[in-house]
Each structure stands twice: as C-alpha cells, then as structure tokens.
Amino acid sequence: MPKPQAKKNKIGRNDPCWCGSGRKYKDCHAPVDQAQRAELLRLRQAQDTLIPKIMEAAESVPERFPPAFAQFWNEEYGPEQMSELDDLEERGAERFLTWFAFDFAPAGESTLITQLIQAADADGFEVDAFEQRLLPTWAAVRLRPYLVEEVRKGSGLLVRDLLDEQRYAVNDTAAAKRMEPGEIMVGHLVPVGGKAMLTPAEEVDPPYGREISDSPTYYLAGAAAQITGDTAEKLLEFVGLHLEDLRRSRPEATWDDLIEQRSYVLNHFVMALPQEYDPTIVDRVVLQTRIALQTTGASLVGLVGRGSEPEGDQPRDTTATPEDEEAE
Ligand SMILES: [Zn+2]
C-alpha cells in the first residue's frame, strides 16, 4: 500500500523542520520541498502532453501497421478497418495504437517508444525537458492485466498485476469513475515521478520532503480494455498456455518474457469475450488455444499466485452509460 497518511503529516510553516535542524520549517526545508513538488507537478503535466505526442507518432507510420494488425487483432481486422475499429471493438483504434507504440517490435527492430527515445536525443522527436526525462522510463512498459483492488472516487485506483502480483497506485480520475473493484483492466501503466526521478535539490538525510513518495505514481497511457473479474482465472489459464508454448523454445521463459514477446495474446482474450459473461464461451476460448498450441496447461501449476482468484461472480457493469467509453 502507498502511504495515504502523508497528507496528515503536513507541516506548518512555523513548525520545527522535519529534518531535525531545530529551525522553523519555512527557514529550513520549505523551499527545497516546494521545488520538489513543483518538479513533480511538471512531470505529471509532461505525462499529459507526452502521451498524445506518442499516439501521433504511432499514427504517422501506417506502413508498419499490417504485421501489427495481424498480431494484435489475431488476423481478424486489417489496417483498412482502422476507422471502424472503435465500433468493432471498444475503443479499438486507440487500444491498438497504444499497444503498437509500447509493445510492437517486428523482428530485429525495437519498439516505437525506444525509437522515439533515440529520436528525442537526436532532436528528431520534439519533446520538452520534462517529457524527455519521462520518455526513457517508459521503455519497458507493456500491455498487462491488472485487477482493480480499490477505487478511490475522484482520485484513482489501486491495482494488482495479475501475473506478478505487484501493486500500483494509478492516478486516473476518469478510470476511477468507470472501474469497479474486482474488475480487470488490460492496459499500459506508465510511471511518473517518485524520488528516483526528482533532481536532488539538496543532499540531506532524508534527502526529500517526506510528503513526496518514494515510489512513482502510475498513469494509464492511451486506452485500456475493461473486463469483468470473473474472467481472471480463465485469463491466467489462457496466458499460461502461451507461456507453456514459449517455454518449448525458451525453457526459462517468465511471464515478463511472455509479455515482452506476445503481449498481444491478452488482446486475443479480450476479443474472444462475449458481451455478457458466458463461462461456456470462455472455456471454449481456452480449449481452442490449448488445441492450437498443443499445450496441456500443466506448466501453470505453481506459476500463478493463489491470491489472484476472482471474488465470485461479478456481473458486467450495468450502470454503464454511453459516456463510460470503456465499459462494454
Ligand atoms: Zn530542514
């Protein structure tokens, strides 16, 4: 859990400084802390402006689309259907472009994000100083499945990665309105800030104001798919079959390796889901994958944390309105 109590510790300007110097806060660390907060705010703003620039860059290389479409949409749609994708699949065009930018890497080539990092260094991709600091920290971001554990209306979400069980605080008020605890979000979480990203303004111990968290805040980049929590077990079984298949050529392959090489299979699972949860259809999807890959699912034993069980039957969000774009 992050530290929600930080706010309560807010120091008054005339209180003794948190560093123990004995001086008033305003005469000691207040300016340093203020500079750090301003820097963090600028980084968050940079996140807001950088994501559209990445999407624009993705749209500008349609010649790379055909193999990417085949992977992400499992050969079901082609690039000529780009304009219809939002009707065919919930926010399909934006979800495709996000995956295309962060994950797609044709043989021998790097992802678009990695290319943009190089281009930004060579002034070939226009970014400001804060965007330029953020971009390299996003190179390893990939499409992953997250279980929503907690929704903080008006502020964000606490989510858990279904594959490695890591927890993230996601600062996204729109997602907080849309998502319910227990649902699954298949999307891209980009880190912003955290002490590691801030310029040390002064070498003291502790080096930063204690209101600034150690760990970065995460934002949802582009569009995410939203699916019901009752699919969690089948989703893990499905990606487990793909991991088993990958391990035929790379016996030591991990979830991270699978995501690095085949994160698009998560979208195949999302595509196969019916509007209303139907266990027989979900079972069939898993069975077909097992047959297609000729895997048994045996490798799943011991791989999947027991903590990932869905909490009973979660109906689809019936309160969805046309504004809730990602609610299917
Ligand atoms: Zn101080």
Describe this entry's structure for a reader:
The protein has helices spanning 30-59, 65-72, 85-88, 92-102, 112-121, 129-134, 173-178, 232-249, 255-262, 264-272, 279-293; strands at 144-152, 156-161, 167-170, 184-192, 217-227. It has 328 residues and is an alpha+beta fold. It is globular, with a radius of gyration of 22 Å. Zinc ion binds at residues 17, 19, 21, 28-29.
Kindly provide the radius of gyration, computed on alpha-carbon positions and rounded to a whole number of angstroms: 22 Å
Instruction: Give the strand line-up of the largest sheet.
Output: 3-2-1-4-5
* SSE pattern: HHHHHHEEEHEEHHHH
Shape estimate: globular
Q: Catalogue the unreliable spans.
A: 1-8, 301-328
End-to-end C-alpha gap: 29 Å
Strands, helices and their partners?
Elements: H1 30-59, H2 65-72, H3 85-88, H4 92-102, H5 112-121, H6 129-134, E1 144-152, E2 156-161, E3 167-170, H7 173-178, E4 184-192, E5 217-227, H8 232-249, H9 255-262, H10 264-272, H11 279-293
Bound molecules: zinc ion.
Concise summary:
With 328 residues, the chain is an alpha+beta fold. Helices cover 38% and strands 12% of the residues.
Key words describing this protein structure:
single chain; 328 residues; alpha+beta; five-stranded antiparallel sheet; 12% strand; disordered N terminus; binds zinc ion
